[in-house]
Design goal:
The complex is a heterodimer.
Chain A: H1 2-18, H2 20-30, H3 33-45, H4 47-54, H5 60-78, E1 95-101, H6 108-121, E2 125-131, H7 133-147, E3 152-156, H8 160-163, H9 173-179, H10 189-195, E4 197-198, E5 201-202, E6 205-206, E7 213-217, H11 218-221, H12 224-234, H13 245-255, E8 268-271, H14 280-292, H15 323-337, H16 348-357, E9 362-367, H17 370-374, E10 387-390, E11 398-400, E12 405-407, E13 421-425, H18 432-442, H19 445-453, H20 455-459, H21 466-470, H22 472-477, H23 483-497, H24 511-526, H25 532-550, H26 552-563
Chain B: H1 2-40, E1 43-44, E2 54-55, H2 59-65, H3 68-98, H4 104-118, H5 121-132, H6 138-147, H7 157-186, H8 190-197, H9 202-230, H10 234-239, H11 251-261, H12 265-295
Antiparallel strand pairs in B: 1-2
Helix pairs in contact in B: 2-12, 3-7, 3-9, 3-11, 4-7, 7-9, 9-12, 11-12
Classes of the chains: A alpha/beta, B mainly alpha.
């Protein structure tokens, strides 16, 4: 039903472009003369952005009509954006090739919108090359190094070190000046400044916002009877949502191994992604960062000790063996003991499916925003409107590296895990302007809202604009959410983006190699091959070797750039 | 006279011309890459950086022998090669002997035995991954009847490698069965008839007639299968992803990581050549054995 609504909505947009006179007539019939005058006046003020948002380059008449319509809707969110009035670009005969992961996730929107764009700009075609995620990095790098056949790459943001730092993609600042960018100020600053930029230049357009949030089953954690039982057993009443990972551990222990949802099957405490070669390091960092990252004195400002997780930015010494990391390893292993049997083999995809289909039921989970969107999909979900959403739990203490001791103080770190997917233009592209224009077309607010509310089901795009968080109606109407759930879900994600101290991924060259070592270390802790302490030491040695191999000074320079510190 | 000389020259070139595409293919896609990667193994080169390759001599080779991950993967590779091939040989031989009879049942059974070989290893591995599932896996349910609880086939460092062997054996026993069956059915029946006349038991016929007669085929089949098993990748990738830790990584899996994930082309070439050298020596030993037996 929602798909149909979208189809209708998409068709309406296209029809708007084709049947302008019909729309005008209808609008004129419905509006008073005064409204039209106001609308046109507003359009005059922000005609540029409006016209661009409308993506109406097919002809002057179309541009004006669409400008009026969209400008009125978006005035609030894009006020203050004053890009140059965009030229109406024509890319007659241009053919673009987009490389991204195998669909539907992430690839689907490119298919969905490419027809509109070619129609709009006169471009010949947009070809899509789908590559399985496991091979995406090597295929992309081989193309950038050797084949040079892709114009656009839609890739994970955490490859920035290799791709942006490696100089394989074009800075977009000039294109943004020339063509503007739809709703630039509407993109949350954390994404704009930390994800799309490298050094002092913008290299990417937003495509998907990503961060981990915490999920819980309301029919478990919010049942007074269970809360009382828990208090009797553990001696305190837990918070909803849990405040710290220690509390999560206790709650998971409490709900583990008995039928709390009364479906006749045993249920479990918590669901995580634990499988090696999946995306486990991101889940581990959710815990370890809370004990490691010292809160900055001034929000958003990192220094040698504050806001730091991976390396000491002065020496490039890996921090993997610090007590905060060791605590992270220990707690992550404890989580596994409170998860269903076989959870050690769960990838993030397994986690989502299992948690949402309640087979078996788990009281809590951590994941990207996808679980939320899948939870309202009636074809798979058994937990619609049964989920609570919040930012990640924190820690009751953190390790102060400067003083070399623990600080018994609540610490909560937001993490932009993975950082989402971004669009970049290959420096070898023969049509970089068209490539940029297509990417900005995909990222325009009127298009990405459709993709974002469909995120977990087919597009793989999650919120990254203020308007995504405020447009609750779209989530309710097209996403199938209840207003209350949508509100809580969006607040949880927004709280991460609003955190100026949010931690990003490691975005320096060699990231896959650093990540692989961490992945192995986690796996060894989970299977008791090594103790948390030994694993922490082992992964530190690996990281030091990788850093030395790649050149410590160069890595340090790029790491400092990543942190926004002077290099 | 002049005419005939010219003709001879043309005739001499014809074989070369006909072979040229084949030789060209061989040179560009086999010989040149082999020589190039041998040279590469003496360099340190991170492909995705702009730095030029640096000559490091045999450093990559010495590094490999100090790299625990490489040594573990080497051990795993040969463990899988030896155990899986042995199991496949024994089971394949047993099936070939047992099903070497006429009748509808045996014909259908022979066809069924060949089916696993025809499926893709990735598909097979995915199926087995589900069968091994600790909560819902059918195989694990079955095992649970005897052990009392599900076993962590893919997540226990000790069991993971044997789970890979199990899947490999399940799929490739059919290969040994196919070759062994063909050998049994193709050798002359007179010796068996003579044995029947002299009152030999079934075991005596197998031990003293069938096995000696098919041993050359068995040796070749074993060699082929062993070399293939050493190259195992798909099953490891799907079943365990090399984990837990790196406890079930094999050489091909590690080489893939060194090449396509870490982009250390020099080091990856070095470990590929070490593996090649070991395999070459082992194969040579087996071939010498086969020749000796054939002559004997």
């Amino acid at each position: 039903m929602n798909d149909n609504n979208y189809c209708k909505k998409g068709k309406r947009l296209l029809e708007n472009q084709k049947n302008i006179s019909k729309n005008l007539t209808r609008r004129e019939a419905l509006s008073t003369t005064g409204k039209v005058v106001v609308g046109v006046a507003v359009a005059g003020v922000v005609a540029g952005i409006g016209g661009y948002l409308a993506g109406s380059a097919a002809g002057p008449t179309i541009t004006i009509t669409r400008t009026v319509e969209r400008t009125v809707e978006r005035t609030v969110t894009v006020t203050g954006v004053a890009p140059q009035p965009p030229a109406v670009p024509k890319f007659e005969g241009v053919e673009l090739t987009v490389a991204t992961q195998t669909g539907p996730y992430i690839a689907e929107p490119v298919y969905y919108w490419r027809g509109s764009w070619t129609q709009l700009t006169g471009a010949k075609a947009v070809n899509v090359v789908e590559i399985p995620y496991a091979e995406l990095f090597e295929k992309v790098m081989l193309d950038l190094k050797v084949a040079h056949s892709y114009d656009i790459l839609i890739i994970p943001a955490d490859w920035a070190g290799d791709i942006m730092g490696g100089g394989y993609v074009l800075p977009l600042d000039d294109f943004i000046k020339k063509y503007g960018f739809p709703g630039w100020e509407d993109i949350v600053p954390t994404v704009r400044n930390k994800i799309l930029s490298w050094g002092d230049k913008v290299y990417a357009t937003p495509y998907d916002g990503d961060c981990h949030i915490f999920y819980w089953r309301k029919d478990a954690l919010e049942v007074p009877e269970y809360q009382d039982k828990f208090r009797d057993q553990f001696g305190y009443r837990y918070n909803v949502p849990p405040k710290t990972w220690e509390e999560v551990l206790d709650i998971a222990e409490f709900f583990n191994g008995w039928d709390w949802d009364k479906d006749g099957n045993p249920d479990y405490g918590i669901a995580f992604c634990f499988r090696r070669g999946s995306q486990t390091p991101w889940y581990f960092i959710d815990i370890a960062a809370q004990y490691t990252v010292m809160p900055p004195d001034i929000p958003g400002r990192v220094d040698r000790y504050r806001g730091i997780f991976y390396f000491d930015p002065e020496t490039m010494e890996a921090l993997c063996d610090t007590p905060g990391w060791v605590e992270g390893f220990r707690l992550f292993r404890e989580m596994l003991k409170r998860a269903p049997p076989g959870a050690i083999n769960w990838s993030s995809g397994d986690l989502r499916t299992i948690f949402v289909s309640a087979s078996p039921s788990c009281a809590m989970a951590v994941d990207w925003a996808d679980i939320g969107v899948i939870s309202v999909d009636p074809t798979i979900s058994k937990v619609k409107d049964k989920l609570g959403f919040s930012r990640l739990p924190g820690a009751p203490k953190y390790y102060d590296r400067e003083r070399g001791s623990w600080v018994e103080q609540f610490n909560q770190v937001s993490i932009l895990n993975f950082g989402g997917w971004v669009g970049v233009v290959s420096k070898w592209s023969k049509n970089p302007e068209a490539a940029y224009h297509f990417l900005s077309f995909l990222a325009s607010p009127e298009r990405d809202i459709r993709d974002v509310v469909e995120g977990g089901r087919k597009t793989g795009r999650n919120p990254y604009r203020y308007s995504h968080f405020t447009d609750i109606n779209s989530w309710v109407t097209y996403g199938g959410w209840s207003r209350e759930s949508a509100d809580q879900y969006l607040k949880a994600i927004k709280s991460v983006y609003d955190d100026p101290n949010a931690l990003t991924d490691l975005r320096i060259p060699g990231q896959p190699e650093y990540w692989d070592s961490l992945d192995i270390a986690i796996s060894e802790v989970l299977t008791d091959l090594r103790t948390p302490e030994d694993s922490a030491k082992w992964v530190k040695r690996q990281w030091e070797e990788i850093t030395d191999k790649r050149g410590r000074d160069q890595q340090k320079k790029l790491y400092r750039e990543m942190l926004g510190l002077p290099s | 006279m002049r005419f005939s000389v010219r003709r001879i020259r043309v005739d001499n070139h014809i074989p070369m011309l006909l072979l040229a595409p084949c030789l060209g293919y061989l040179f560009f896609f086999t010989i040149f890459p082999a020589i190039y990667s041998m040279g590469l193994s003496l360099f340190s080169w991170h492909f995705i950086t702009d730095e030029a390759p640096t000559f490091v001599g045999i450093d990559n080779f010495t590094r490999a022998f100090n790299d625990l991950r490489f040594l573990v993967s080497l051990r795993n590779t040969f463990l899988i090669g030896v155990v899986a091939t042995s199991v496949e040989l024994l089971l394949g031989l047993f099936l070939a002997l047992y099903l070497n009879k006429s009748g509808l049942f045996f014909s259908i059974a022979r066809i069924i035995c060949l089916l696993p070989m025809m499926a893709t290893p990735v598909g097979i591995s995915w199926s087995w991954r589900m069968l091994f599932n600790e909560q819902y896996g059918l195989f694990n349910k079955f095992v649970g009847l005897f052990t009392g609880s599900a076993l962590p086939f893919l997540s226990d460092p000790n069991l993971a490698i044997f789970s890979i062997i199990l899947v490999d054996a399940w799929q490739w026993t059919s290969f040994m069965f196919l070759l062994t069956s063909a050998a049994i059915q193709s050798f002359p029946k007179e010796p068996l008839e003579a044995a029947d006349v002299f009152g030999a038991s079934e075991w005596q016929k197998i031990r003293y007639i069938i096995l000696p007669m098919i041993s050359p085929v068995l040796l070749v089949a074993t060699l082929l299968r062993f070399l293939e098993a050493l190259k195992i990748f798909d099953s490891v990738f799907v079943l365990t992803g090399g984990g837990p830790g790196y406890s079930s990584e094999t050489i091909t899996f590690y080489t893939y990581f060194a090449t396509m994930k870490f982009w250390s082309l020099g080091y990856a070439s070095a470990i590929a050549y070490i593996f090649y050298a070991i395999t070459f020596v082992l194969s040579l030993m087996v071939i010498v054995q086969v020749r000796g037996r054939l002559r004997g």
